[in-house]
Amino acid sequence: MCGIVGFTGRQQAAPILLDGLEKLEYRGYDSAGIAVAQSGVAVHGGVEGAGLTKAYSAQSGSRQTVGAARPDAQEDWQEGTGAASARSVQDGSRMTGAGSAEPSIEIVKAKGRLKVLREMTDDGRSVPGTCGIGHTRWATHGEPSVVNSHPHYAKNKRVAVVHNGIIENYQEIRDRLTKEGFSFISATDTETVAHLLDKYYAGNPIEAISRVMFRVRGSYALGILFADRPGEIYAVRKDSPLIVGRSDQGNFIASDVPAILRYTRDVCFIPNLEIVKLTDREIHFYNVDQEEVEETFSQVNWDTEAAEKGGFAHFMLKEIYEQPKAVRDTVSPRISEGHVNLEELGMSQEDLAKVSRIQMVACGSAYHVCMTAKYMVEQTARVPVDVDLASEFRYRNPVMEKDTLVIVVSQSGETADSLAALREAKKLGYRVLGIVNVVGSSIAREADSVFYTWAGPEISVATTKAYSTQLAAVYLLAIGLGRARGVIDETAEQEMTRELLRLPEKIERILEEKERIQWFANKFSHSKDIFFIGRGLDYASSLEGSLKLKEISYIHSEAYAAGELKHGTISLIEDGILVVGVATQKSLFEKLISNMVEVKSRGAYVLGVTSYGNYSMEDVANYTIYVPKTMECFAASLTVVPLQLLAYYVALGKGLDVDKPRNLAKSVTVE
Ligand code: M6R
User: Residue 26 to residues 127, 659, 665: CA-CA distances in angstroms?
Assistant: First the structure.
């Protein structure tokens, strides 16, 4: 998903923007760009020259200075009649304005990795100025290209814009503006915003932004520069995340905390539909009616190392290794003297006892947590649990009982479908509980109760530690509900909480054996298809194992409830195909073994994942991975670890970019 960074302060902006964009690389992107306000004095001197030389050697990029001083610059660029040297740049063009005493905005954009933008700008040094905005683009409207990359700007060069989200009515606005004489150069929805701002701007940025908000539909987080207001950044958001950070050196906007963690921990998640004005020393918030409003800042307790690789080859591996700590941090504060404490939910024991049904909604891996929760909560609390994909729930006009508790699970707290599902549930009058990792995120703010998972920042697109903490959160809720409803007694609660507190150490033991998984993964890194089978809780774990594998290794994979095999899928089994069988549930163990025999007799190579003690697995499986024994209801927390490692090492064996799988974004903030 696109990433936004902005800085205005007492240091050069461009290096800070590039640094911040790098921290957002994990979100996925195909091009990047920066816009830096030039105050109007000595804009293009020797420093600029250095940037020019660099830029000409870049493979793909463009650079323009736009502003009141060069009313013809963009027309030149559009028509390809710019400086002759511009033509030597392969994918795009480049133009810089002549020296000027007028304020202007310099924009540099490049297709591909940030490294290209770094080269073009001499690591930001050749774009002077202390106020700017930057963007990594993940193409939605229009192919990945320089012209479609952000920042976008208005024809008369007064405004530059970076955008995350989708302007749904962009075509209608574009048609209207075209009739009015505005000309568009990109295929993006964002360019409409630049032109609209230009149209409405008559010296008051807040007014212009507020008018744009009334015109556009969809979701947006916008960072905006006005050429005649050097030193000021404007930002606004609707249903797309954007934060503000403040420090002694200046103020920031960013899509996510890691982008600015190096400079400040003092942040505010911009409330939906609010506009922000930032100068080097001040931050002001306004509502859509242009009235100034007060907002509070909070301290992010994530440390900078948590957002760095810290010696690991990939964030994913580091985050797999952080799981014991993440689970411990999530579980320990909620257990005292063997009792689960759910006070933070703001629900009394009576409220919990009254819950007659639970509706869980989420996307991707978080949905698999819900699948696990269905088995776990139904067994422990005897409350029926329905599970829906958020993208389905939001449109299906659900029929739910009066005392249904809706639980939305999300690492980012910003997933568009999950947020929409939450709003739908609230609109229908249901109480919503969010299980969320990012403090202050949209889901956290809009839910009636929040249960935070303390995983810390998760950078890798493939979730691992956040998943494990979501499972832990679900266990705590199940125990709390079970007690409140009188389904489990104090002894059972004590036994379960004792075991919960032991899970981190058991995860550590699995990690100590990672070489066995690595060795096995190397044998199968060139597979075409890999299947996962399980029953009950193990089926839920299989779904996660399969998703993990396919998203980072690009190997086709499916997970099946093992009993379903005979109803069609078994016809896909052929010689040498890998089938991973997960079997931790005693009552279902023999059944799963039979399913493994069925696939093996049709030529499959079978990997068994089970708990120590279940040694009969070796009678069937070609290779077996054991996890420590635990209570069956918590087994998913252990079996998922070898499955994560399997996915990681298979992808590594294929030489893939594990942390940034193709076509994927960390946080899916558009529908
Ligand atoms: O931030 P969320 O937990 O709401 O994200 C949900 C999914 O997009 C996410 O789990 C996705 O499936 C991951 N890439 C899986 O590793």
Answer: 25, 7, 7
Q: To which CATH superfamily is domain 3-302 assigned?
A: Aminohydrolase, N-terminal nucleophile (Ntn) domain (3.60.20.10)
Q: Which residues are catalytic?
A: 2, 666
Give the three-state DSSP class for 266: strand
Query: Residue 56 has what pLDDT?
Result: 28
Q: What is the pLDDT of residue 90?
A: 33
Query: Which tokens belong to 154?
Result: 């208005």
In the predicted model, is pLDDT for residue 671 greater than 70? yes
Residue with tokens 């059972």: 492
| Alpha helices (H) along 29-113 | 46-57, 73-79
Domains 310-512 and 513-662 agree in fold: yes
Cα 170 to averaged position of ligand 1 atoms, centre (Å): 28
Residue of 568, 561, 620 whose CA lies nearest to 594? 620
- Output Rg (C-alpha) for the chain, integer angstroms: 27
Is residue 284 within 8 Å of residue 277, measured between CB atoms? yes
Please give the distance, rounded to the nearest whole angstrom, from the Cα atom of residue 537 to the centre of ligand 1.
Answer: 20
**Strands 243-247 vs 250-254: parallel, antiparallel or unpaired:** antiparallel
The domain 310-512 is classified under which CATH number: 3.40.50.150, 3.40.50.2000, 3.40.50.10490, 3.30.565.10? 3.40.50.10490
Among protein residues, the one whose CA lies closest to atom 8 of ligand 1: 364
Ligand 1 atom 11: the closest Cα is on which residue?
364
**Closest to 121 in 3D by CA, of 196, 64, 187, 200:** 64
Pocket test for ligand 1, best of 320, 668, 671 (most atoms within 8 A of CB): 668
- For a substitution probing ligand 1, which of 415, 549, 644 has the most ligand atoms within 8 Å of its CB? 415
* pLDDT per residue as tens digits for the range 131-160: 999 999 987 777 888 899 999 999 777 899
Per-residue model confidence as pLDDT tens digits over 281-321: 999 999 999 999 999 898 887 766 666 777 788 999 999 99
What is the domain partition of the chain in residue ranges? Answer: 3-302, 310-512, 513-662
User: What pLDDT, on the 0 to 100 scale, is given for residue 544?
Assistant: 98
Going from the Cα of 209 to the center of ligand 1, the distance in angstroms, rounded, reads 32
Residue to probe by mutation, ligand 1, list 369, 388, 411, most atoms within 8 Å of CB: 411
CB 63 within 8 A of CB 106: yes
Range 390-394 average pLDDT? 94
Query: Average pLDDT, whole number, for the chain?
Result: 88
Element (H, E) at 436: strand 431-436
Residue nearest to atom 4 of ligand 1 (CA): 410
Work out the pLDDT band at 96, boundaries 50, 70, 90: very low
Per CATH, which fold does 513-662 belong to? Rossmann fold (3.40.50)
**How many A from CA of 665 to the centre of ligand 1?**
9
Residue 55 has pLDDT above 90, yes or no: no
**Cβ–Cβ under 8 Å, residues 517 and 625:** yes
Pocket around ligand 1 at a 6 A CB cut-off: 363-366, 410-412, 415, 418, 461-463, 547, 551, 667-668
